[in-house]
Amino acid sequence: xxxxxxxxxxxxxxxxxxxxxxxxxxxxxxxxxxxxxxxxxxxxxxxxxxxxxxxxxxxxxxxxxxxxxxxxxxxxxxxxxxxxxxxxxxxxxxxxxxxxxxxxxxxxxxxxxxxxxxxxxxxxxxxxxxxxxxxxxxxxxxxxxxxxxxxxxxxxxxxxxxxxxxxxxxxxxxxxxxxxxxxxxxxxxxxxxxxxxxxxxxxxxxxxxxxxxxxxxxxxxxxxxxxxxxxxxxxxxxxxx
Length: 241
Hints:
This protein has helices at 3-16, 32-35, 52-67, 122-128, 130-139, 152-158, 174-179, 203-216, 218-228, and strands at residues 40-45, 72-78, 83-86, 92-95, 97-98, 106-109, 145-149, 166-167, 183-184, 189-191, 195-198, 236-238. It is an alpha/beta fold.
């Protein structure tokens, strides 16, 4: 049983007062055929100044996973009204949907603009306040997995979502977060249950592959890696119980 289904089962049992033991770590992954009626719904939130690879790296992983027949439904979303977003290096991205927490199992939060305090990016989103409020409201539901990558982790922390939970971020932002009291670990990918973090830019691909492995198993993740011709680096630091 994957973690998402375990959470859903746990919530249902809690409502009836029943309890259940956690699934064994060696439990076989659910096949695409078994899960075809219950796709993993992933939203990737974008905003002006977002880093291109922070968006398109995970998106490529999600697209490849779906193309292989695994049940993944993914979409780009905004924190406000749908429209056109201008990314860090000028790429124009048409985003037809706004984020609805009730329609997502995973929310990918990329970074961008960390060094541009007066330009588009995470600081502008924090100043505006709408996206941080949305993130806080969404994080109240423990069934939603937040995947912060690069300086999107800074956005999550400044929005009050991470608090004292362990995290990682782009190497250039680690000291900033430590100065703010964050529990920053030196890991490329960190898994703390319904909070997953990845380091800078290309590490977002590693984190997305980890999420696919967590959902569909190691063989699926290996197939996706081969298709992408991408080799994950290092190990995933798992801090959840």
